[in-house]
From TrEMBL:
UniProt-recorded name of the protein: Unannotated protein
Signal peptide interval: none
Domain ChsH2 C-terminal OB-fold: 55-122
SUPFAM superfamilies: Nucleic acid-binding proteins
InterPro entries tied to this protein: ChsH2_C (IPR002878), NA-bd_OB-fold (IPR012340), Thioester_dehydratase-like (IPR052513)
Pfam families membership: OB_ChsH2_C
Organism field: freshwater metagenome
């Protein structure tokens, strides 16, 4: 069985995955997740356009904020048994938006700091063969030796 994205159309897979945003062709406002086309209108209140194009978003951004989930989220979230806490990061992309996502496997809040560079990775969701996007801290050469 081949792993597939948990939500089709939100991100690409492969060696250099990207989030897929949606840009209004009328005002050039970019959105994530891509839902404006399905709604039929631009979310910018000053725009009346109804046409959009899919655009890849930057693979890297900076940590704007972060936290951890120390409790098991309620259904429909499918947590592993026993529940394992995980970190979440709000990442500011160069496109001027903040995207929230889980932090990559093997990383937690102790590995994050505000302003730190992170990159998008795609990993299997713990409870299925489906893939989800996550944020992985970027480690520069020589940085590991300093820690």
């Amino acid at each position: 069985m081949t792993a597939t994205p948990a939500i089709e159309g939100w991100f690409t897979v492969g060696d250099a995955p990207t989030l897929l945003g949606e840009r209004c062709t009328g005002c050039a406002t970019t959105y994530f997740p891509p839902t404006a086309a399905a709604a039929g209108f631009c979310r910018n209140p000053g725009c009346d356009s109804e046409t959009f194009e899919q655009v890849p978003l930057s693979r890297r951004g900076t940590v704007w904020s972060y936290t951890d989930a120390q409790y098991q989220p309620p259904p429909p979230y499918q947590a592993p048994e026993p529940f394992v806490p995980f970190a979440l990061a709000a990442v500011e992309l160069p496109e001027g938006m903040v995207v929230v996502g889980q932090v990559a496997q093997g990383y937690g809040t102790g590995d994050l700091r505000v302003g730190q560079e992170v990159e998008l990775v795609v990993e299997p969701e713990h409870a299925s063969e489906q893939l989800i996007y996550r944020w992985k801290p970027v480690v520069e050469l020589g940085e590991e030796a300093d820690q």
